[in-house]
Amino acid sequence: MEKLTFFALSAPEKLDRIAAYLSERLTRELNRHRYGYVSIAMEAMEQLLLACHCQSINLLVESFLSTLRLLLEAEKPHLHILATNSFLKFANIEEDTPSYHRSYDFFVSRFSEMCHSDHHDPNTKLKIRVSGIRGLQGVVRKTVDDELQANIWEPRHMEQIVPALLVNLQPHESLIAVFVCSSSPAEQTEVCFRELLGRAAYGHINNAIRPVLMHLDSHSLWEGRGFAVRCFQIIMYSIQSQHSHLVIQQLLGHLDANSRSPASVRAGIVEVLSEAAVIEAAGSVGQSDEHCRICCVRVFWYTAAVCPPAGPTVLEVFNTLLRQLRQSVDYQLTGYYDNARKHKTTSPEEKMLQDAVIKTIGSFANTLPVYQRSEVMLFIMGRIPVPGIYPALGSPNAGNNLLTALPSSFLEPLLSFTLMEDPEIRLLVLSILTSLIDRRHNACRLISTRFAAFEVSALELKEDELLVLMQHAQRLYRHVFLASKEESSGHNHYRALFTLLGVLGVELANEEVLVDLIRLVLAMQELALSSQENLSVFNRCGIHAVCSASLNLLSQLGPPPALRQHVAEVTETRQKEAPYLLPDHILCEKPRIPEKELKMDEAILFKASKICEALAGSSYSTHSERINTPYTPELTDEDRLSRRKSIVDAVSLQMDMELNCCADAPQVLSEQITFETLKSAVDDRGIAEEEERKRMQLVERFQTAPFEEIAAHCGARVRTEPQPGVFFFHKVLKHQI
């Protein structure tokens, strides 16, 4: 062998004749089944390949590859393994000169076939499959970086390579006993698969992912979910991070294509999407309307509770997932997941899918920067079916903080859900509002300790005021008050109300806000005492408990110690005489309420006069007089409309009212309605709406615009149109500043 190598290096022009002779000799020995001489001939060709690093190596390669084809076409497994090992040695050689006519199509096909080996002997099957996997790995190394070689990224090659690898990623029972003694094909496959994906450029990702989706479909592997998730974990961790969104787009398109598949298949795809979103973030990126509304609000809670971009089409992701959510609700209602009503589905299966979609939307929301979260929440809110209310939300405002990007068109429809009849929706919306306001995660601290022993030192207090939310404060107060009147509220609702009030106090804490919150709490106490409200004993105890817990917290956020002393005195009296008015007895899993009607003494109530006395002589004294003014929120038309269950209910109510009016009133001739009458009514309504819109724009501008801009605008008005109203506006502005 040393003499042959020296001769080949001395006369490289004779390499083709040497290789042809060795190939001829190997073929002769192979036909005679003299496999020992076959191995010697292959070893000689391998050593010549490794020694001849020169431009003339191409003279040797063609004969070498043709010899490998002969071995791979033989029926003996040990010859397949011999050929694979020789090919791997060749694949590791870095050639100096390109080859324009070399083809590896046969090797891709043969190695892929070996990966599917079903030999009767488990040990032999294992060896053949591992050799096939290693052979594919060698083809990838030899061709992927050479633009002049065959393009293995073409679909015809990927459709052979990828399924061959995926088959060996799955555990096989027949090979379990062999795995104990040697490495499994799954380990070799994962190494090869990662290397293949790691070398994929932007234009190759789709060709590599499409066979994965086809394989999971054809073998029904979405339903198990574990294997599908593992495959895409390998994919997401292996490809270059800037290409992750291409995988997401492929999965979204596949989810749409399987919209008529069983719920278990759709849930499997959605779970894979969720895992892919988490990995991408780490690397880069009804029953009708009523049922769908619940699902969408749950989706919204996940989006609000969490915080680099998820690709170029963020809203496309959420649009696809919300569409799947709505379809699932429709399938749950009809009992079928196809239009022909041939394939049945069950409510638990669709519920499982809906939970998976909601979790996935939360995963994607977690990948978004703060400025995009407002857009996504507006987008989701626009798809919650609220009959007759806020049909269009408009475009979201831009901003760098989530709260600065909450326009009225977003907050108003969200607040309207606090007055829905469905208790689940109300509870979710209260959680959403708390999540939006709670910047330092104090909500979990408020509900994780005993109310009686609560100390404000357990909270992370703010160092800056959240001035942006001040413009929405009165709306929040009003809806907190109205939500406390709901008769169907449970202990979780009252805990959520206390948490929201506590977070408001911590985030907005200044003297004016604390006084407003105290007024709100006193108004809620009066609400619980009112005989005009149709509230149960539990409802009244729950409201009193919220008032007690809220005042205990507010009294520790800055007011004089006298206020905390008054709260402590009332709490101590309640502990002795009326423990059912304390939060530890009511805001728990098993509330303890009295069997008889409540008897309220003055000693167990918080008094506005005592609170005013406690605040007197401090910096709060300038605002304390407002405590004696009862807080009376105005009930708007939106609040009334938001309590409707559906348009049908509203129409039925309207018809009942008309029938009652007709029965009571005397018969009179009705006015003749003409086209001109209707046109006039529509025009008048349009003018009124335009005036209201301009008025709201002016109010919002006054609340949010910088002082310099407002002053410049008013100065221009004074110079051009001196009117008394302008000077009044200046006076009000100065007072507000």
Automatic annotation (TrEMBL):
GO biological process: protein localization to plasma membrane
Stated name of the protein: EFR3 homolog B
One cellular component term from this protein's GO annotations in UniProt: plasma membrane
Signal peptide stretch: none
Record-stated family: Belongs to the EFR3 family.
Organism: Oryzias sinensis
Pfam families registered for this protein in UniProt: EFR3_ARM
Taxonomic superkingdom: Eukaryota
InterPro entries xrefs: ARM-type_fold, EFR3-like_ARM, EFR3_Homologs
